């Protein structure tokens, strides 16, 4: 069954209030960020999106690319700095059950850019959820654990025509980025240069997809009796307590010992 999609670009006081109401009424919330790159320590957040109900997505833009001046400009919402509004709203997510796809990136970039640590509120990473019940992921549909690939694999079950939407989205995004002086390649992924309305739809859609994928595979997890293993015993505890901190701070290496071992071998 197709679910009606309502995606909002949060650029007014009224829509900020609607977003706040949506967060207050949702215990489980999908979260995603759009950034200037993949360096969690140096890149900037140009917007974020949330979804607490299938078919609904909110994208709040914080910065917009100006193709004429070739600069990123901070946005304002009803006279307020969009970054300040974002900080207040992100702080509202403490205590919620957050769902992310590749949570380590999104939560670390939020922590480094805004100083807000939401790792304790992370409930599930959908790429890990899929891997737990389907080891090969969406093999044959693209990147086995990519969001769009997974969505294509289960598009009938989640009520979306992901193939058509993803192809259209990819074409529009590339054309928009290119028209604004950017490029989308494996080396240089400048999605932040896309037209802001298009980026808003893209961001809101991603959190909607994330929530739909979570809901679908949670049923599979329960059917296979792996709920406790995933949430309490191994997958998510190890991810939150070991993997994310390791990616954030690195691993201490005894270089002299390694060098000595190499000489002795």
SSE sequence, one letter per element: EHEEEEEEEHEHEHHHHHHHH
| CATH level 1 class label | Alpha Beta
Number of strands: 10
CATH superfamily: Ribonuclease H-like superfamily/Ribonuclease H
- How much strand content do the residues show? 15-25%
Strand order, largest beta sheet: 1-4-3-2-9-10
Helix content: 40-55%
Note the main sheet: 6 strands, mixed
Please, what is the average pLDDT?
Answer: 92
Q: Write the CATH fold name.
A: Nucleotidyltransferase, domain 5
- Show unreliable segments: none
Provide a count of the helices.
11
Short description:
The protein is α/β, with parallel strands linked by helices. The chain has a single domain (6-264), classed as Nucleotidyltransferase, domain 5, CATH 3.30.420.10. Helices cover 49% and strands 17% of the residues.
């Amino acid at each position: 069954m197709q679910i009606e999609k309502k995606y909002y670009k949060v650029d007014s006081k009224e829509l900020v209030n609607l977003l706040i109401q949506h967060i207050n009424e949702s215990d489980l919330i999908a979260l995603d960020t759009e950034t200037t790159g993949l360096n969690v320590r140096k890149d900037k957040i140009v917007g974020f999106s949330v979804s607490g109900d299938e078919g609904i997505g909110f994208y709040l833009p914080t910065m917009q690319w100006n193709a004429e001046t070739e600069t990123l400009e901070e946005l304002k919402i009803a006279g307020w700095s969009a970054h300040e509004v974002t900080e207040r709203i992100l702080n509202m997510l403490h205590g919620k059950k957050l769902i992310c796809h590749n949570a380590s990136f999104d939560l670390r970039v939020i922590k480094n850019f805004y100083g807000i640590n939401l790792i304790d509120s992370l409930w599930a990473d959908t790429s890990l959820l899929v891997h737990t019940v389907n080891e090969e992921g969406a093999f044959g549909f693209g990147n086995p654990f990519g969001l769009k690939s997974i969505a294509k694999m289960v598009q009938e079950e989640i009520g979306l025509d992901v193939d058509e939407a993803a192809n259209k989205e990819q074409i529009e995004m590339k054309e928009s980025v290119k028209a604004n002086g950017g490029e989308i390649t494996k080396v240089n992924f400048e999605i932040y240069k896309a037209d802001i309305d298009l980026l808003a739809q893209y961001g809101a859609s991603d959190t909607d997809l994330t929530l739909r994928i979570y809901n679908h595979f949670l049923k599979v997890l329960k059917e296979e009796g792996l709920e406790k293993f995933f949430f309490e015993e191994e997958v998510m505890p190890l991810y939150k307590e070991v993997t994310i901190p390791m990616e954030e701070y690195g691993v201490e290496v005894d270089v002299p010992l390694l060098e000595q071992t190499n000489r002795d071998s």
